[in-house]
Amino acid sequence: MSNHVSALAHKLIKGLKFIAFDVIRRYHSIVPPFVECYAGGPRNIGPVFKKEAHLLYALGRLFMPNYIIEIGCGASTIAFAEAIRENGRGHVVTVDISESSIKLCTRRLKLHGLLPFVSFIKGSSNEQTIISQVADKLRSGGGRYLVH
């Protein structure tokens, strides 16, 4: 019996190592194109912590959610929208209280051709009406979602 358990444990560890290496391989194949595309020049996404933007993009690519719900729009919205475009499915729903932030983000999304992948909800993320709007989107979309 203990040999059987040991063999199962060995198979499980081997399987987890395979999954971990696959995730690392996929991360390294996904992040460089994002870095090349958005690392300055006319396509620059604005002031951002580049490593965090790369991570958010990679998460969007790896999890392939139907929806990404985001509180506050900005560079992370662009990273998520690019992941959604590359995935070929999904949508970003971002909640922001600032009209000027929404306008700036909208301009940047248009510049990169990413506006069709994003919906904005203007308001405070702790207002019940806003929470209901987000919940309705999740219910209608089904599947996986990522919250940032």
Automatic annotation (TrEMBL):
Q: Which SUPFAM superfamilies match?
A: S-adenosyl-L-methionine-dependent methyltransferases
**Domain Methyltransferase spans what residues?**
68-127
Write the protein's name: Methyltransferase domain-containing protein
What organism is recorded for this protein?
Answer: candidate division TA06 bacterium 34_109
Q: What taxonomic ancestry is recorded? A: Bacteria, Bacteria division TA06
